[in-house]
């Protein structure tokens, strides 16, 4: 079904049509400095496509909540726990409701964590709910920064991972990313490079103009044109827009943002009692504390006498307001819950969202003390538990190196890598394709072989075969390798569960 979204007027006076079905498959990047009309463009796209596709807007400033009145979007206030946002995202995909995730009122790090939790819930939705969704992320440089900033490394890594999943792997799950940024230089390159459609607006910095020209396939000398673009004027390129760079003017919108551009307003006439109005506090104002002069300096003799006095006995410690959590007891309870989940033979073929819900329920049943693990921490710990490493191996430096290597892999591949790494550290036979497929949550041995090829391309391991056609996996960074193993051997654990 072909649906053309009217974005405005092209340079030749013809309608600037955007192929919505092609956009869902190829994604869109919008770039423009503040005041270039970037938010106006996104609003035009959302309004024109609202009847045709489900929409999700990640809104850091709360400008798009006005879509709710005219187009029925549900506003999701992000001032919730990460687990709650993840569950809401799953229900949104299930019931196909258009939403605006309002991040207004949160600081930058909280916005990154909330957006990552919500996008992770949409990404991890069950396969039956993979309907097309237009995911619009305004100010994308906040959620996929090119370099570390003032936020913690953990928040940046979680947010960047969610944005990478959206742009790199979201298409097969029905997620079509539309990201907008003020500066291309501040946006992570691996996120920007996944877009095939571009709308470039006014920009002034040389580095941003050069990147915009590269993305549009233009000569560096032509990049100067981006300085001369008026507000609401963009250069379009991509399979959903135009095969050649095409100047377009964005059309009008039906709704308006809560915040508007500053307008010059004449000053009011100065009142005669202006001085009294400024320096006399109002009746409702809180009284500020009066600044007092500092005390006179203490004489040296008095200071020495005070220092020579015996110290008073420390006051007995007060009773803690909250019960002290025994970390050892908490970790033991979490480990026990992880083992219970792993004992279920069907657990390998369930999504992370389903396993996480099962984990939370089991933790409540066992009354595990403390705050439950969030979804990213659960994924990481479940991947480590799935490897089945013993206590002695877990304390070694080689296993610590394997854990560090796995941190750079996508979440769904970390468990598979740790399984083969544990086999190499223990010098156990190389796992078969069926075992690796189960660790990945699949029934396809061919997919397991592709995973090993992916690890080999990343330089994490080397696959070789002995004279008996048995497979051996060598890990250069760990200094160890697996024993020979039959790649076509059946999955013993799955067979035992069936019997």
Automatic annotation (TrEMBL):
InterPro entries recorded: AAA+_ATPase, ATPase_Atu1862_pred, HerA-like, HerA_central, P-loop_NTPase
Gene3D superfamilies registered for this protein in UniProt: P-loop containing nucleotide triphosphate hydrolases
SMART domains associated with the record: AAA
Signal peptide: none
Record-annotated AAA+ ATPase domain positions: 24-213
Pfam families: DUF87
Region (Disordered): 252-275, 480-499
PANTHER family named among the record's database cross-references: HELICASE MJ1565-RELATED
Name of the molecule in the record: AAA+ ATPase domain-containing protein
Source organism phylogeny: Bacteria, Pseudomonadati, Pseudomonadota, Alphaproteobacteria, Hyphomicrobiales
